[in-house]
Amino acid sequence: MLKATTILVVAFLFLDFLWYLWQFCRKYIMLQNSRPASYSKTTITELMIPAYANFGGKIHGGILLSLMDKVAYACASKHAGTYVVTVTVDGVNFLQPVEVGELVSLHASVNYVGRTSLVVGIKVISENVKTGQQKHTNTSYFTMVAKDDFGKPTEVPMLELESESDVRRFLEAIKRKQIRELYKEDFIQEKSNLEIEKSLHLLDNERAILKF
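RESULT FIELD:
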């Protein structure tokens, strides 16, 4: 009886050791395939020249979008270690105009990673070089997907969250994803149920004129 009990204890201890060994190996493998958010943080600064301006003398929104796409690619590809493509762009709000002659800095960081996708948060700061005054002109979120050499989606490294800010950005990205999915479902439902005759009253206070 004592011998059988000893064997059971040894067996349980051995299984316990194997479990801890598996956990250690799992964490080690995960760390080998992960990168901190700080690793891929990227900043691009560019002078706003007259060729970038619209007829009103302000910088074209398309120019800023192009620069944001560029910094998003640089940031995401550095984390992924491979080619990436832009899938969606969320929250492109032009908060303030950008003037010719100002320096525009685009600060990008990986906020969230899925299996093959990454969300890059971008903050755009414009600076008057004469006065040193800075203004926050844009914040946006680019979802990128990593591609392999054959153009197929490929897995990206996990994201190491090094600070409370990293955790907050990651959680905010999850919330945005959930809200976007709910909005998509609700909009599809509303669109399918839309009856024009019953909804015409919604035009009462709008700047639209019915011509039929």
